[in-house]
Amino acid sequence: MAKPSIPSLPTRRHHSGRPATPTPGQVLRQGLISVAGLVGARVTNQAGQEVGRLVDVVARVRGGADTYPPISGIVLRVGGRRTYLDAGGIARVEVSHVALSTARVDLREFRRRPGEVLLARDLLDHQLVDVDGVQVIRAADLYLAAVAGTVRLVGVDVSLQTLLRRLGPRRLRTRPTPDRVIDWAAVEPFGDDLVDTPAAVRLRSPQSALRRLRPGELADLLEDLGRAERQALLASLDPETAADALEEMEADELEVLLREADPEQAAALVEAMEPDEAVDALRELAPDERDELLDHMSDRAARQLTDLLEHPADEAAGFMTSTLARVHPDDEVAVIVARLRDRVEQRNEIDAVVVVDGLGHLLADIPLFDVLVADPSTTFEELMVAERHHDPVTVAEDAGVEEVASRLIESRRSSVLVVDPDRRPVGRILADDVLDALSPGQGRLHFPRLLQ
Amino acid sequence: MSDAPAAESVGRATRTVARLTARLPGPLRRVLAYAAVAGPGIIAANAGNDAGGIATYASAGSQYGYRTLFFMVLVTVALVLVQVMAVRLGTFTGKGLAALIREQFSLRLTGLALVCVLLANTGLVVSEFAGIGAAFELVGVSRYAVIPVAAVAIWALVLFGSYRYAERIFLVLSLGFFAYPVAAVLAHPDWGKVGADLVAPHFVASSDFLLLGVALIGTTVSPYMQLYAAAGVVDRGAAAADYRSVRADAATGAIFADVISVMIIIATAAAIGGTGALTSAKQAAEALRPVAGSGAELLFAVGLLGASALAGAVVPLSSSYAISEAVGVERSVSRRFREAPLFLGLFTLQLLLGAAVAMTPVNLIRLLIGTQVLQGLVTPVVLVFILVMSNRRSLLGDAANGRAFRAAATLSVAAISAMSLFLLGQTVLGALGL
Q1: For the whole model, what pTM was predicted?
Q2: CB within 8 Å: B161 and A445
Q3: pLDDT beyond 70 at A222
C-alpha cells in the first residue's frame, strides 16, 4: 500500500478528551483546501478565462491502493450543463479556484466507476466511520491537500465550528478551520453509491482498519449507523466476524438489523452466531419473521434452533448453547484434537469435551487444558481415570439462572453441562452467558424509545 | 399536537397498555383491556392530547360552536397526507427527518428547518408548562409555585433515568381525557347540525377565525409530530415490505386523533358554545360536566396535568434529538446521555425558556392558544421540506410521491402556507398601523 508522505494533520482526537497537538501554524492551514468551500469555485482555462463553476469533486475512495485517495476528476457546470473533467486536465486546485491545463472542455457526462464518489454529494454531511476512535461521525467538511504533486483527500472535519463557518458568508466558507480533523486513513466511507459497489472493492484494502476492531466495537458502530450504511458495513465483513459482532449488539438493535436485512442474509448471519445467542435474537422477532429466517437456514441449523426455542428463555435449556464436542471413552486424544481443529469457528463455545457412552449418557466433562497436556496416544477412558473426572458439573434443563450461577461458583469451572432427565448432555452454559443474563443492560438511551 | 404516539404500532401500543393496566383494579382493567383491543390507536392518540391542543379545540367549540368542524375535516386530510409522507421517508430511508434534511439540502436550509423546529417546540414547551400551571390553579395552587418545581422535576427525571416510570403515571393520568367523547354524547348536541357542519364548507370571514384556524393547524399538524412519526418507524426497523401496515397505522392514528379533537370541540360547543373565546380552564372543564358532574374540574385538572407533563419531557427531547441528529452527534446521545453537551444544553434551555414564559403574568388560555398559533406559523416551513423530500425520486425511488398524491399534498401544504402567510401579513400590517 503506497503511503505518500503528507504533512501531519492537526489532528485533535476529541475522544481523548484533551487537545493532543498544539494549534497548527498558518502554513499548514493554507495547505488544506476545504471541499465545502470549493463547491461553487471558479474554474478557469489556460488563458485564465472562466469556463464554469465547480459542482463536485470525484475521488476513488474504495478499492484503490492509496491511503489518501487522489482526486480523479471534477464535475463542473458550464453554462446550464454539468460536465465531467478528468484530473489529467487540471493544472492547479486552490482554495477557491481551479485552474485547468486544457484550453477547451468537452461536454461529457459523469459516469461513476466502481469505488468512486462525489465528495460533496456523497460524503459531505453524510455518516462515516472513524475507525480509530470507533465512532460514527458526520462530515462537517472534507479537506484536500497537494501531496507529491497530486491533490488528495486527507481528512474529515467533524467540528461544530466548521458547521457554523459554512453557515456564514461565502468568504469564510473557503477558509479551513482544522479544529477537529480525523485522518482519512482512519475513515471508512459509506456513500450511497458505494453500497452498490461490487464486494471485491468494498473494503478499502485487505488491511482495512475495520479488521482491527473487536466484535464489541463493531457492534457499537452497527448500532450507530443509518440503515444503508449499516447494511454496507455488514456486507463488507466476513460472515463469522459479522456474527461475532451481532452477538454483542443490544437485543432491540439486533432485532431492527435482522428485520431490515434481506431474509437470506439475515438467516446466514443468525446461523453463524452461537446457538444460544441466535436463539435470543430469534426470540425477539415476530413468529412469522422467525419462521422466514428458519426457512432460509440449513436443515440442521434450523432444527437445532427450533429445539432451543422450545424452552423458555429463563431456563437453562433456553439460554444454553447446543454446540458440544462429544467423544467416546475409547477415542484417542490425538484423533479428537485433530477433529477439534476443524471446528475453529466454535472456539468460543467449546471449552471442554464431553465423554458419553454408546447410548449418549454422560460420563465425564474434560476441560480443554487437560486434553491439551495429555499424551496424544491416551484414550479418554484413561484420561478420565487419571484425572478423576467422574463427577461432571451439570444442571437440569429447567434450572434457572441463579441455580446455574451457584453451580458455577461452587465448582469453579468456566461452564456447566445441561443434561436431560436421562442424563444425556443436551448443551452447555458458559460463564459469560450467565454474566449476560445477570448484568443489567448498559442503559443506552434512545430518544424514540423513551415512549415505549 | 394531538397524537404524538400515533406513530407507534398497534402492537407497541397494545403492549404498553397491557403493562399499564396490569396493576389496575379488576373492572377498570377489563374496560381498558377492551379499549386496547378495540382501538389502541385511540389510546395512543388520546394520550398525546396536550394542553395546547385541549385549549385550542375547547376555544374553537366555545367561540364558534360547530362552525370549525368542516375546517377540522380539511386539517385531518392534510394531517393524513403529511403523516404518510413522514413515515414513508422513515420507512424507505431508515433515517430520521433531521438527518435526511442535512443530507438532502444545503447546510443553510438545514439550519432554517432546525430553527423552525426549535421555535415550534419551545412554544410547545411553554404550552405544556402553562398546562401544568392551569391544572394546579383549578385545584387552588398558584402556578408560580408549581411551574418551577415541575421544570426541575422533569429535568431531573429525564436526566437521572427514572423518567420511564414517571411517564407511565402521566400516561394513566392523561387517560382522563377519555371522558371527552363520552361527554360529547351525553351532552346531547344537535347531531343534525354537527353532521351538516362537518360536510358543508363554511368559513367565518374574520381575523379571529383566521387566528384560530392557524392555531388549529399548528396544534394538529405540528412539526414535532412529523419528527416523531418518522423516528418511530425508523426505530422499529420498518422496511419497505412493512410500508403498507406502517401507512395504515399512520393514517388511522391521524384520523383517530382528529376524531378525539372533534369530540372535544363538540363537547365544548354543546356545553358552553357561543359564549365567546375561552378565557379560563374552569370554563373548559364545563364540557366534562355531563360525565363527571361536580368532579368535572378535578377530572379536567388530572387529565391536563398528565398530558402536559408527558409532553413536557418528550417535546424538548425530540427537538434536541433532531438537532443533534442533524449535527451528527446523536449517537453520543444514545450512549451517554449525560455526556452529550449539545443535547443536554438544548434540552435544559427549552425547559428554562418554557417555564419562564409560562410564569409571565398573562392569561394561561391565551398563552396556550398563542403557542399553537406560533406552531401554525412555523409548520409550513417544515412541511415544505417533507413534501420536497418525498417528491424526490433520487431519494425514494419508486416510493416517491405519485402524481395524484403529489398534487393533493402540494395543495394541502400550499393552503396551510397561505393561511399562515396571510395571518403573518395581517399581524405585521396591524402592528404597523395600516
Answers
A1: 0.79
A2: yes
A3: yes
